Amino acid sequence: MRVVIVEDEPLLQQRIARFTRNILGKKLTHLGQFLTLSEAEDYLADNEVDLLLLDLNLQGQNGFSLLQNQLAKAFHTIVISAYSDKAIEAFEYGVLDFIAKPLEEHRLAKALAKLTDNTLRSHYGCRYLSVKKHAAIELIEVANIAWLKADGHYSEIHLINSEEIYLHSKSIEKIQLLLPEQFERIHRSYVVNINQVARLLVESGGRYFAQLRDNTQLPIGRTKYLAIKSHIETKKY
């Protein structure tokens, strides 16, 4: 795992680095450490990373500006900040977790576990996803997403009542970590907004489909059908 730390207090930066090494062990393949936003921006522009550990107050500069510039990148972000009142705003930017200072190793370990355990995703969910479109960044409101489809290391995003398809640089596994609970993985290649499911279809040969409100039909994996059926019957989103 390739990790970048952006923290302007050298002692705290070293503490975060030590905890990260302890927790990830051999999974950690690279650890970059930066004191300023400009240094981090330059590095992220030319290098691929998996995780950003970000402070929000960096020598008077707002760490959110880095998130705004990097929203469409494939890496996840965990915010580590003394400004706990910024947590909701951070989740709206699609961060994986928000850790209030002072930082404890067990809390960072819990946040890092979200990278591999989908059951630990935040109950907040992000409010927006961002995509690159014509060399610009466009924000998509999550509430307007009907379903997503895996496309290799990327994801197709399909909106409610729209034929336009957006491509996101995060894999479908990474995106689902950020989405609210009403987004269910119904198949290895599909995530659906349960609120958009009109009914479930059972066809011969043990094939299952979710029919959406716009009549789109998406396949449901055989091992997932009963769980999806239960979630739809009891949904409270």
From TrEMBL:
Family annotation (InterPro entries): CheY-like_superfamily, LytR-like, LytTR_DNA-bd_dom, Sig_transdc_resp-reg_receiver
4-aspartylphosphate: residues carrying this PTM: 55
UniProt xrefs under Pfam families: LytTR, Response_reg
Keywords, alphabetical: Phosphoprotein, Two-component regulatory system
Gene Ontology MF term list: DNA binding; phosphorelay response regulator activity
SUPFAM superfamilies, alphabetized: CheY-like
SMART domains on file: LytTR, REC
Domain called HTH LytTR-type: residue spans: 129-234
Domain Response regulatory: from-to ranges: 2-116
Protein name: Response regulator of the LytR/AlgR family
